[in-house]
Amino acid sequence: MFATNSKNSYAHSAFGLKLATINLFNFIEPPGAFYEFSNIYSEDQWRQKRMWLNRYIGSYQPDIIAFQEVFSASALKALLEPLGYRFFSVVDEPEPINSVNDYVYKSPVVCLASRYPILSALPMHADPVVSEKLGMKKDFEYSRLPLCATLELPSLGQTDIYVVHLKSKRPTMEEDDESKAKEKTLHDSMQAEIAGSWASSIQRGSEVCQLMASIIQRRFQTNNPAIVMGDFNDDLNSEVLRAFHVTGLRSITEDMADMPLSHYQLHDSWDLFIKNTGETGLERPSTHYFHAKGSVLDYILLSNEFNSSDPASLAEVGDFHCEDSHLINPKFDQDAYSSDHAIVSVTIGLRR
Known about the structure:
Deoxyribonuclease I, Chain A, endonuclease activity, 6-stranded mixed beta sheet, Endo/exonu/phosph_ase_sf, 352 residues, endonuclease, 8 helices, disordered N terminus, Endonuclease/exonuclease/phosphatase, exonuclease activity, alpha+beta
């Protein structure tokens, strides 16, 4: 387990807010199945999966949790309510694979659970105007609908929270029927994979452009603090996710807006933690492993209200934690049905 701790900076603060993002990796209640009819948890497997989540919440007690890869939202809500999460939102539902096997599902959804009131929660659909500017079709849509919720938080007031699960790096390809698949040559397969991988990158990058366009518009309208949590399926500094970096805009000047450009910037919570606490020499923990190679895919981004370098900021990041013991040192009886992602959480306190 990799954990960082800034000597409990906010242990005695009047306000401490803990955020977490969790990819639940096929959270589906039996007899439902994910993707294939054989993927049905036994009652014991389903119990292990829920217990793993219970243990994490019991240990770290996040106040607000963003979830991804949820098939059974009602089961998740029922699990969380006795743990103090009175407020729960989901704005989409998974799709059956077909009408014949209507218990086999695809397209898991995102959810949000909170100990604080959720005033509103809406799905975020792609804007056709933005799609046209991107050179996409007007009917372009997110691969998974993000959730935008407004919460009433102590000391911060109304705050907008976005829960996202961006398109994965898996190639986007047309499904071939069995006869065509047999006829495929190595050359055909390689071409299809290259094209499909790039199509996934285009989808993911376009989703970020759509998301940032919505966040900027919302910030302009309300000035609410903004928090973005979820599985980005890419490195935050990749060209594909470039739209997250407002500071990279070159044709915009400070005198073009009533608010400074920093007002629309989002900050990686890890960077804010390092800068605010002065911790040095820390290696950022991976949140996902593929063939033993680690990468950071799961993020919590924060608006300028949480950047202590800004004189107008309200709060700051005092702690960053990556719960990864189930990935790097798993215990089979506890972690066999956990997740293939680490859990990222941050603790926020009022500026000192």
